[in-house]
Each structure stands twice: as structure tokens, then as C-alpha cells.
Specification:
single chain; 172 residues; alpha+beta; OB fold (Dihydrolipoamide Acetyltransferase, E2P); five-stranded antiparallel β-sheet
Length: 172
């Protein structure tokens, strides 16, 4: 099961939350050897914004652990690829068994029907495909305390300016 760290950015209805995942490294998880060849858009500042089921009861600003079941990937492939393949095979069998032998009509029609059924099942099972917030790693207050300590240690205030800077106030 793939597991990531994320920040909750908002709460949504039906027990869902909007999260932002900021990858540790700009590569494809578990396939870093091919990341340079296929993933040209990933940078140090890349983020992924998505929805997740909020089973842990996280609040905006919390640092959370997010996981996704491996079985959902297999299910998605089965539904979105397997159904059209099965439909085209069924259309081929049906077309070959008919006296007119219109394979050119029945195979694409079966594939189209399989594709439509695949989309219907995929949408029906979409809640199971969502990432799930497993646990809260750090609450919003703990995360804020970490950033406050870092900004104070570097001689910067909470706004990111040097301590004692009033340049932003003069711009108002």
C-alpha cells in the first residue's frame, strides 16, 4: 500500500478533505530509474492537490498520513481495460456465430459497450479509489510551532521578513 505525507487544505462534504501532497523527491514512486525519461514536469516544488476520505478526522493545516490501496489500481485496470476487451471478444463470438458474419460491426459494438460498462463501474466504485487519511502525524498547532521555531532561528519573523522589518506595513 502506497503511503504519503500530506497537508489538509480544506474540509469537504461527505467526510472528505482536500489535501496537498508535496513529494520528497521529484520522481515516480518506486520507479526512480525511469523518472528522468518520462516525468519531465516533476520539479522540487511539484505538488499534487486531490481529495481524500477523512477517516482520521483531520482539520485544515494538519500534517497527515495518506494511503492508497494497491487493489484499487488492479480494479481500475480490470474495469477500464478488461471490460472493453471482453466486450470486443463477446462481439466477435456473437458476430462469428451469426450467419451473416458481420465481425466488422459486432466487435467494435462489443468494445464500445464494454467501454461504457467500464466507465459506469469505475464511477460507481470511485469512492473506493480515493486516497484515505489514515492518521494525523502533526496537528495544525504543532506544524505552526515548527515553522515559528524555524523562522525565529533564522532571524526572520512569521511573515518571512527579517525581524524588525516594517517594509510590508509601509506598503499598506
Amino acid at each position: 500500500m502506497a503511503q504519503y505525507g500530506a497537508t489538509v487544505t480544506g474540509l469537504l462534504p461527505n467526510g472528505r478533505a482536500e489535501i496537498v501532497i508535496r513529494p520528497d523527491r521529484p520522481d515516480i514512486p518506486h520507479a526512480s530509474e525511469i523518472a528522468g525519461r518520462v516525468c519531465h514536469c516533476a520539479t522540487e516544488n511539484s505538488i499534487v492537490r486531490t481529495e481524500a476520505l477523512n477517516l482520521a478526522g483531520a482539520s485544515p493545516g494538519d500534517w497527515v498520513s495518506v494511503s492508497r490501496k494497491r487493489s484499487s489500481v488492479v480494479k481500475n485496470v480490470m474495469v477500464l481495460v478488461g471490460f472493453p476487451c471482453a466486450g470486443s471478444m463477446a462481439g466477435g463470438i456473437l458476430g462469428a456465430s451469426m450467419e451473416s458474419g458481420n465481425l466488422a460491426i459486432f466487435v467494435p459494438a462489443g468494445a464500445l459497450l464494454g467501454f461504457l460498462l467500464g466507465i459506469w463501474f469505475y464511477r460507481r466504485w470511485s469512492d473506493e479509489n480515493m486516497p484515505v487519511i489514515d492518521s494525523i502525524i502533526k496537528t495544525r498547532d504543532e506544524v505552526a510551532a515548527i515553522f515559528a521555531a524555524r523562522s525565529g532561528a533564522e532571524g526572520k519573523g512569521p511573515s518571512g521578513c527579517q525581524v524588525g522589518c516594517d517594509r510590508c506595513a509601509s506598503m499598506l
